[in-house]
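Appendix B. Chain record.
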Amino acid sequence: MKKRKRNIQTGQIFACILMLLAGVICGVAMTKSFGDSFSDMGIGKFIICLFVFVVSAVLAMYVQIIIHEGGHLLFGLLEGYRFVSFRIGNRMLMKGAKGLEWKRYSLMGTGGQCLMEPPQMRDGSIPYKWYNLGGVLMNLFTAAVFGLLYLLCRQMFFPGILFLLLALTGVVYGLINVIPINMGAVANDGANVKYLGEDKHALYGFWLQMEVAARTTRGERLKDMPEEWFVMPSDDAMQNSMGASAAVFVCSRYIDNMELERAESAIRELLDKDTVMADVHRWMLTSELIYCETIKANGQPGPLCTGDMERFWNVMSKNPSVMRVKYALALFRDENEKAASKIKVDFETMAETYPYSGELEEERQLMEHAWNIYRTRKAQKDINKVT
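Structure tokens predicted for this chain:
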């Protein structure tokens, strides 16, 4: 765990250095465009300069995210993958039962995501390199194009700064994603390719992630997928994020099957192990553990509801499983039926644009399960008071 934390810190420091260098280059280019140093600028010029920089930076960031995910899509199609969904921020275009649909979805640690259905495994292998590296290649290629455009337009302030930021953002995104580093929430593309080339367990975990995502998009639930897919990996197999993700699916399937005691035991064992699990998965499993603890006889989640956990819930506040856990806490810990009712209303509002209908069905079932236990327990308390 200590080594993993050091790797995360190294990755974050590397990313900060790259962004700092990009900022310095932009600052120098902007002052040259104005012909003044920042200290010699009047307030009017400075405000204009700052406004142009902010607008250009936001545009460059979103354009390069689109280019990155578009690279995954293009090279995935070339490798035989099929389109499932394309997300930028929390806006998702997905292939639904009635064709392409717009939905809302977000995942901590990602600015976008292109999900594709993989080809079937043959002899324990599938193509993976170009799909994973497609985003990086497009970032770096377009960075070169935008860099050339900057050289042609550098005398014109707005297009010059915009092209420069597009070029620098492309380089930063490309390097951050291609060099195998761990940024904490999720592994980057370079790390994925490294894992997939070294370990057959990682390759299976990658295929399983993509296949489950594709089926989930079509409304299928984990409990209805082939049981043989969901076998707890060995400790060695979980020394990369792909292998560890297969273990997360095992725990999630227990929950979908309403095998909550089995899920609780598996989650505790998994969280206690030294695995290379993505942070978002670790937090989600901890959240599920809190749900299991909360609906037990004592109705208390124990020491797991930390400040860090609350912050994770705030970031993932529109995630249906997080809303379900908060619903259970409102009932059992807080004994606040009004707050629980509001969470349920918010859940149904979120569900109108949420992409995964099977997941919504599961969460409604788990909320109903919590409500039934709460109502039975409350009725028993009322009887005890009378007697």
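Further analysis of this model is presented in Appendix C.
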